[in-house]
Amino acid sequence: MKTEDFNYDLPEELIAQTPLKKRDSSRLLVLDKKTGEIDHKVFTNILDYLDKGDTLVLNNTKVLPARLIGEKEDTKAVIEILLLKNFENDDWECLVKPARRIKEGTVISFGNGLLKAKCIKVLDQGIRHFRLLYEGILYEILDKLGTMPLPPYIHEQLKDQSRYQTVYAKEIGSAAAPTAGLHFTEELLKTIEAKGVNVCYITLHVGLGTFRPVTVEDVKMHKMHSEYYQVDENVAKILTATKNSGHKIVAVGTTTTRTLETIMKTYHEFRKASGWTDIFIYPGYKFQAIDCLITNFHLPKSTLLMLVSALAGKENILKAYKIAVKEKYRFFSFGDAMLIK
User: Fold this and answer.
1) Which domain holds residue 112?
2) Rounded to an integer, what distance in angstroms lies between the CA atom of residue 149 and that of residue 298?
3) How are beta strands 107-110 and 67-72 bridged, if at all?
4) Do 223 and 131 share a structural domain?
5) 304-330: pLDDT as tens digits
6) pLDDT digits over 112-169, tens only?
7) Which residue from 57, 107, 99, 5 is spatially nearest to 232, judged by alpha carbons?
8) Is 150 inside a domain boundary?
9) How far apart are CA 8 and CA 318, in angstroms?
10) Whether 48 and 106 share a structural domain
11) Residues 75, 10: one domain?
């Protein structure tokens, strides 16, 4: 299986640069994974595809203002770091630009010394481990100094930082938003619950995998970066009851999908669990946890495109993407949505 098999042509003007004024006003392409049939809807129509007794699962991770611009204490060279993973106390895994300037022992200063980062380990591909040095509460300092780590294909400034958070974001720790959830409003979620649909939340902190392209020719040689997940006991019970009663489990986003599939693959049942996952889902994978997926349109040759191809079939997905391009859907993080039913 070749990475090039998951390529498609996308006009640059279809990459959404800003979010729509109203979150749930985006378009919704509905793909039947069994027949390949496609319907064109708006996102509020999602209600028509959720039945009483179904369970909608969302990722409640909250994005850190994780992009920091500082300077080396010795040379005053400008350095940009992206906080990716807090692995112990104030030690963080970070993506650095330009990484070649950062050696073990290098200190970067942010906000005139309000925050400092000392390099404690050098890794490949622009990754460094830093120890953060500060007084006070780190997240308050990041709110002052950091900005939202928007993907590199978004070139416009985000006027309202909250638009890169879901309305239900709670557990802080992500380097990127679980963007499928950006379409939901509090009102829409209440309407879904009023229909008798269970609305549950899991946590997966989105990390480096979001920023890393697939560079190998053979898909199976790609190594996923690990990300932290957590599912509580009550959610596990609801998911088990849903599955046992024959109702649908509808995952919102690839991060939710990867979390639920990790638990089923590891334990062969839904249960309270937390840990690190590097699960890589591509065609040939047998889904055990989810039935349907609400997602955005993904980058060519990406692991996310491979995941949706595993669920709906590569031919169905590439056909749907071709139609989406023809119909001028908006793509990627701030773009339109797809339901794979």
Assistant:
1) 67-145
2) 18
3) antiparallel
4) no
5) 999 999 999 999 999 999 999 999 999
6) 999 999 999 999 989 999 999 999 999 999 999 999 988 889 999 898 989 999 999 9
7) 57
8) no
9) 7
10) no
11) no
